[in-house]
Amino acid sequence: MKTFFQMALLERLYAPLVRKLNLTSEQSRRFYEVILDDKMKRQAQVADLLRHEDFSRMAKSIEDIQKEMDTSLQTLLEAADFVQYREYQSGVGDRGLLELMKGDFAESPLTEEQQQHLLKAMESGRKAVGNFTSDSVVGFSIADTSDVMNEKLSRQESIDRHVLQQAAGFLSPVQLQILGSAQARMMTARKNGYAKAREMFGEPGQKR
Fold first, then answer.
1. Cα dist from 32 to 6, 8, 13, 18, 20, whole Å
2. What is the CATH number of domain 93-208?
3. Model pTM?
């Protein structure tokens, strides 16, 4: 069941790219399988490293999995299509956040145009703080020390402020309030998640 929902989310996130690349049904199926396999490998590897409290290997392990996925996609896609994938991938984290927030806008839905404006605001917010990654807004990791995590949370707050300011130009007052509440909810979830991780695993690099 979990895999089904993960695949459904991936299809929502990557459908615009798949249509743009004009992939065949078989190519589309294989494309989604490669992306899903990458995410499942990441989850399994992180879980294993956490179980052994081996934070030092986490970044290298994730990097190796990323390289494996890139190799598979380069085999599947034409060179020009792979370049378009890399460009699109830089905004997938933003699209994921937007998907998470859509439920908050249930009573005041975003139009397609508003969604595109919001994605652009998220992108410009990330770039304003020097972040160009896509998997999460500022690359949060369980292996971060408290100092690093606090710095990343500060950057995230700057991104959120930037997005909220930009959104004032294309969202209604009600929608703007919803966006601010959604940002606050996600920030609280990040802080609580990190606090729970530190409670369970301690500070990275320190013996327990």
1. 10, 10, 10, 9, 15
2. 1.20.58
3. 0.77
What is the DSSP code string of 134-203?
-SSTT---TT--HHHHHHHHHHHHHHHHHHHHHHTTTS-HHHHHHHHHHHHHHHHHHHHHHHHHHHHH-S
Burial class (CB in 10 A: 0-12, 13-18, 19+), 118: buried
Helical axes 92-101 vs 173-201, angle rounded to 10°: 110
Token pair recorded at residue 152:
């990343």
CA max distance for the chain: 53
Q: Which residue, among 138, 144, 154, has the nearest Cα to 203 in the 3D structure? A: 144
* Contact yes or no for 23/82 (Cβ under 8 A): no
Mean pLDDT by 10 residues, the chain (208 residues): 79 93 95 92 74 64 85 95 92 89 95 96 88 54 76 90 96 97 93 79 59
Q: What angle, 0 to 180 degrees and rounded to 10, lies between the N-to-C axes of helices 146-167 and 173-201?
A: 170
Each domain of the chain, given as residue ranges in start order, spans: 1-89, 93-208
